[in-house]
């Protein structure tokens, strides 16, 4: 990505970093950030930036109409530079997490809403107007690229069932309370699409908020602790972290539950290789399971139960190469030596 | 030649013994090999090439590469991964492959004629096999040391070599080489995955499954399982597989989830056919994927296909119950649970009990059964598990509330009603953050005409959900309307309309129209109905794809015409009412509500006989249609003393179904009065007056 970036986009990214530094105030960002080769990638991956921005997003009074940081996120996303957009998406967990928890208390959060609506509009445009995301369920009676069907395909293939994974995204210019879950859900779907590129700290943020959203403790930790902020080091956003507010439980209709669960599933079972993330995700999955149990929402129960079970299963290891027993190896070696000797003579 | 071979052989011995350590390779230490490594490679480079070219035709002696391969394998076998790596590092795969290629080409045809056992050296293998295995082991070692990218590259070179070696003609690979190929094919995607190169991982998974590697079934299954999991959880945006040679009618997955589901189904099918062993994770992955797509029915079919002996039957029944409940087949779901909760099976399974309770709480006729399940669940929940207990009490409350509506005696009803509230209260004490619980309690209060408490619950629910759930607003407006606070109810409705997207405003607009009717502003009511009609028309015109999500919370066109007809007939605009009724009838031929409205109009025109016929028809269509029973009662009451017992009968029946129907009480009072039972009449009138003061514009039943 570094080499592909045009000088123009590097310039814009630099400008974005500088304006972010201005928003966050002196000393919050390392000076080296803007001067690097790839400022956009630094924005995405730099731990200091993440702490500062997330700290600010979580801080009291964030997300109001004149919040400079929200304005920055909005502008950075609207720049239409893919690298910068990724850097903005990195903060979706904190953004959506804080927003949903506070929106329940019906606070004025025009800043958050502007960013979320921009992300939603992007998702809707990407998908195409009125297009639901569908999944055609395979029918094994038809042959596929991976298998042959016993019966030779008739002139007409057996009917496929089509499932709707995500309904069409209608245009929304304002954040109405009853559509809030759908909008944030669609933003999470957008984030989910880029998960492979997201740093682990961002995913950890999400799992933490997911636990808070679900609103009940995992049966694993019996200690009554509220979702302890995993990454709230007293640094950058330290002042905010000190007065950490308790994130409220939020309504989780399927349209929000499903994308949240997909992200948790990625953290839990995807190729991330972080044990900390896996542990957090396991907790989030369990909280989601108990949340689904509250209303006996069967599909949510089935899905989360499977996630919890899978997290407890051992992954089947790649089989080690099979060698014959130790003695035979020695024999082999002897044979090799003997061979050498025989050729000598 | 002999000397060359000897030199080749001595390379190891010197390598292994230079540091005056014991002669056996087995005891060789890693560090020493590491230290001497570079040197050896340099000194022996020339030799190796010579020996390779000269010794191979006879296929008898070991050359430098093979020796290294063997030694490295020994080290690997002992677990000295790093040492093995050092030995393997000296192998020049490209050079080796180039040398092997002609020899292989020569060998392949000859092999066909000869039986395999005739190989001149029984203990040793094809040199290419040996070297390729070495490279595979090298790749595996790198992988173990966390150098995944290098590992992937090495592994890929093995596969590339194999491909180039066998590009002409069908591969006639000896077993050992096939094993190496299998393992490399399996290792490659894992190495890419671990290296974070997800696109390469995706490509190599597909290549593994779609190319002709002649993999054995188990290996292929493992790759399919891992690939399915990768597709489900990696969030990698992959292009779907495209094959130039597509069989017609062949299924080509369009996205990751489709591909994952396809693979999982194939693996399951292999298991059904006995080609592979059972792996519980496959079913869990499939459950997750199908639930994600909201396809529990398909899932149920797969679970039913699982052979007995895999899942304990009670667990299978519970899972099936979940599936069938999710598709709305409540009876089937409950039957599975009944089997599972049988005293000979698993009668105290809490989750199954809770699910059974939940299902029963949704159907009146099952409510008694539900109460039993709920009680059992509560008893068997550990006292420490407040959350579970709270769930049990919540569902118990729902069942009791439903049950209170079907019992015949007043005494039982009031008993059940107070029990309902009690279990809700206990449940809330254990879990005060569950908005659904608060909502259900609010509805129960409202139905019991405790409007102040209901109002409190409605407000609390809206606070807890941030006003994001439409039914909360409707409860608030209805409770306010029941308190005759119409302007406030309208404010609540307008606030709800503000928070609702145009598309979903149907039920709120209909509520608004009814509020206008209640406030005797018919023109505004008509206006509200008009807006509603426009909305429904727009929904109808929009594409069928959106239909699914519009349906659940919207008002049907029929209801609008029906509402308008009632409005006009209330104003005695008979012609308009008639037109509306015709429209309604065109949409739904046999409806109790339409017939009732018809009867009402006939009655107003003094056509009592026809009116009575219409009312009777109405309740023949819908046995529990309260308004027509009340109307019949009222009509009979006017017909003279000999009809009074019949009238009383109809009215009592109406009150049995809906004890809070004030019109029924009113007319029953009249019957009593006409019959001379003044005290009874007074009681009925009083009840009617009291109920009038707490009558919502729409039944609370419409909420749930």
Automatic annotation (TrEMBL), chain A:
Annotated compartments: Cell membrane; Cytoplasm, Cytosol
Keywords in alphabetical order: Cell membrane, Cytoplasm, Membrane
Pfam family, one: Hyccin
Keyword DNA repair: no
Source superkingdom: Eukaryota
InterPro entries assigned: Hyccin (IPR018619)
Assigned GO CC terms: cytosol; plasma membrane
UniProt keyword annotation of Cytoplasm present: yes
A GO BP annotation: phosphatidylinositol phosphate biosynthetic process
Annotated spans, Disordered: 222-244
Family, per entry: Belongs to the Hyccin family.
UniProt protein name: Hyccin
Organism annotation: Leersia perrieri
Phylogenetic placement of the source organism: Eukaryota, Viridiplantae, Streptophyta, Embryophyta, Tracheophyta
From TrEMBL, chain B:
UniProt KW keywords: TPR repeat
Compositional bias ranges of the Polar residues kind: 116-125
Positions with biased composition (Basic and acidic residues): 26-42
Coiled-coil ranges (or none): none
Disordered as annotated region, ranges: 1-59, 102-125
Comp. bias (Low complexity): 50-59
The keyword Iron-sulfur belongs to this UniProt entry's keyword annotation: no
TPR-type repeats, residues: 314-347, 662-695
InterPro entries, A to Z: NPG1-like, TPR-like_helical_dom_sf, TPR_rpt
Origin superkingdom: Eukaryota
Name recorded for this polypeptide: Calmodulin-binding protein MPCBP
Organism from which the protein derives: Leersia perrieri
């Amino acid at each position: 990505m570094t080499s592909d970036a045009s000088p123009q986009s590097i310039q814009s990214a630099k400008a974005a970093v500088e304006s972010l530094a201005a928003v966050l105030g002196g000393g919050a960002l390392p000076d080296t950030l803007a001067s690097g080769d790839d400022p956009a990638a630094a924005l995405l991956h730099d731990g200091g930036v993440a702490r500062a921005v997330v700290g600010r997003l979580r801080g009291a009074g964030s997300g109001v109409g004149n919040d400079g940081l929200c304005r920055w996120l909005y502008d950075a996303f609207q720049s239409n530079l893919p690298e910068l957009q990724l850097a903005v998406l990195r903060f979706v967990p904190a953004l959506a997490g804080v927003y949903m928890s506070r929106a329940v208390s019906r606070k004025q959060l025009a800043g958050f809403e502007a960013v979320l609506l921009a992300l939603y509009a992007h998702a809707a445009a990407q998908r195409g107007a009125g297009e639901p995301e569908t999944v055609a369920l395979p029918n094994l009676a038809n042959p596929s690229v991976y298998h042959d069907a016993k019966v030779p395909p008739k002139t007409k293939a057996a009917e496929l069932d089509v499932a709707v994974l995500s309904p069409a995204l209608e245009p929304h210019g304002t954040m109405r309370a009853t559509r809030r879950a759908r909008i944030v859900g669609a933003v999470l779907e957008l984030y989910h699409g880029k998960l492979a590129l997201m740093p682990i700290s961002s995913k950890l943020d999400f799992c933490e908020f997911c636990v808070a959203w679900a609103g009940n403790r995992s049966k694993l930790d019996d200690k009554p602790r509220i979702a302890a902020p995993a990454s709230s080091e007293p640094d950058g956003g330290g002042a905010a972290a000190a007065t950490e507010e308790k994130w409220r439980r939020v309504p989780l209709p399927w349209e929000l539950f499903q994308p949240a669960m997909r992200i948790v599933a990625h953290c839990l079972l995807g190729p991330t290789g972080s044990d900390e993330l896996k542990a957090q995700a396991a907790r989030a999955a369990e909280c989601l399971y108990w949340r689904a149990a509250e209303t006996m929402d069967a599909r949510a129960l089935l899905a989360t139960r499977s996630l919890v079970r899978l997290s407890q299963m051992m992954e089947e290891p790649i089989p080690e190469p099979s060698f014959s027993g130790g003695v035979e190896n020695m024999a082999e070696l002897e044979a090799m030596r003997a061979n050498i000797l025989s050729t000598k003579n | 030649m002999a000397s060359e071979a000897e030199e080749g052989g001595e390379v190891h011995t010197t390598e292994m013994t230079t540091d005056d350590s014991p002669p056996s390779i087995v005891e060789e230490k890693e560090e020493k090999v590491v230290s001497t490594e570079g040197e050896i490679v340099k000194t022996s480079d020339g030799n190796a090439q010579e020996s390779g070219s000269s010794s191979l035709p006879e296929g008898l002696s070991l050359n430098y590469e093979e020796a290294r391969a063997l030694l490295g394998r020994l080290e690997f076998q002992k677990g000295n991964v790093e040492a093995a790596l050092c030995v393997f590092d000296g192998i020049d795969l490209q050079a080796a492959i180039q040398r092997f290629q002609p020899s292989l080409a020569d060998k392949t045809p000859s092999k066909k004629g000869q039986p395999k056992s005739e190989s001149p050296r029984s203990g040793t293998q094809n040199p290419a096999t040996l070297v390729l295995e070495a490279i595979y082991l090298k790749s595996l070692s790198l992988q173990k040391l966390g150098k995944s990218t290098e590992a992937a590259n090495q592994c890929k070179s093995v596969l590339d070599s194999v491909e180039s070696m066998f590009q002409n003609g069908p591969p006639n690979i000896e077993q050992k080489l096939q094993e190496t190929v299998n393992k490399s094919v399996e290792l490659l995607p894992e190495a890419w995955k671990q290296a974070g190169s997800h696109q390469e991982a995706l490509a190599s998974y597909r290549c593994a499954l779609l190319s002709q590697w002649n993999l054995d079934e188990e290996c292929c299954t493992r790759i399919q399982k891992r690939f399915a999991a990768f597709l489900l959880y990696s969030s990698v945006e992959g292009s779907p597989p495209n094959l130039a040679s597509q069989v017609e009618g062949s299924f080509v997955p369009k996205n990751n989830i489709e591909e994952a589901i396809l693979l999982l189904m194939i693996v399951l099918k292999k298991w059904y056919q006995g080609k592979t062993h059972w792996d519980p994770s496959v079913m869990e992955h499939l459950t997750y994927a199908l639930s994600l797509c909201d396809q529990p029915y398909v899932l149920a079919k797969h679970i039913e296909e699982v052979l007995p002996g895999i899942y304990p039957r009670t667990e299978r029944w519970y899972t099936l119950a979940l599936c069938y409940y999710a598709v709305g087949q409540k009876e089937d779901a409950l039957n599975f649970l009944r089997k599972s909760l049988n005293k000979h099976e698993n009668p105290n399974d809490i989750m199954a009990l809770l699910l059974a309770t939940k299902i029963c709480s949704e159907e009146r006729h099952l409510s008694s059964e539900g109460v039993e399940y709920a009680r059992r669940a509560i008893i068997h929940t550990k006292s420490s598990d407040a959350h579970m207990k709270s769930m049990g009490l919540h569902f118990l409350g729902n069942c009791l509330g439903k049950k209170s509506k079907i019992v015949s005696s007043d005494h039982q009803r009031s008993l059940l009603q107070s029990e309902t509230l009690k279990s809700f209260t206990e449940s809330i004490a254990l879990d005060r953050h569950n908005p659904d619980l608060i909502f259900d309690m609010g509805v129960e209060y409202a139905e019991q005409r405790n409007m102040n408490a209901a109002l409190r619950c409605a407000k609390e629910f809206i606070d807890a959900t941030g006003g994001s759930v439409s039914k909360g607003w409707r409860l608030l407006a209805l409770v306010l309307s029941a308190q005759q606070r119409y302007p406030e109810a309208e404010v609540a409705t307008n606030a709800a309309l503000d928070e609702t997207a145009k598309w979903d405003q149907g039920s709120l607009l209909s509520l608004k129209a009814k509020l206008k009717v209640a406030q005797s502003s018919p023109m505004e009511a008509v206006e509200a109905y008009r807006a509603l009609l426009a909305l429904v028309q727009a929904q109808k015109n929009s594409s069928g794809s959106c239909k699914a999500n519009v349906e659940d919370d919207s008002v049907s066109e029929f209801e609008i015409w029906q509402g308008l007809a009632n409005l006009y007939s209330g104003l005695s605009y008979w012609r308009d009412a008639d037109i509306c009724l015709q429209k309604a009838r065109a949409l739904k031929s046999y409806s109790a509500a339409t017939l009732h409205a018809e009867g009402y109009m006939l009655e107003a025109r003094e056509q009592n006989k026809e009116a009575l016929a219409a009312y009777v028809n109405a309740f023949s269509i819908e046995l529990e249609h309260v308004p027509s029973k009340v109307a019949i009662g009222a009509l009979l009451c006017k017909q003279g003393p000999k009809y009074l017992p019949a009238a009383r009968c109809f009215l009592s029946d109406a009150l049995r179904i809906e004890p809070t129907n004030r019109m029924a009480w009113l007319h029953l009072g009249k019957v009593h009065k006409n019959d001379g039972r003044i005290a009874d009449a007074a009681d009925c009138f009083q009840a009617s007056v009291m109920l009038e003061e707490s009558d919502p514009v729409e039944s609370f039943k419409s909420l749930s």
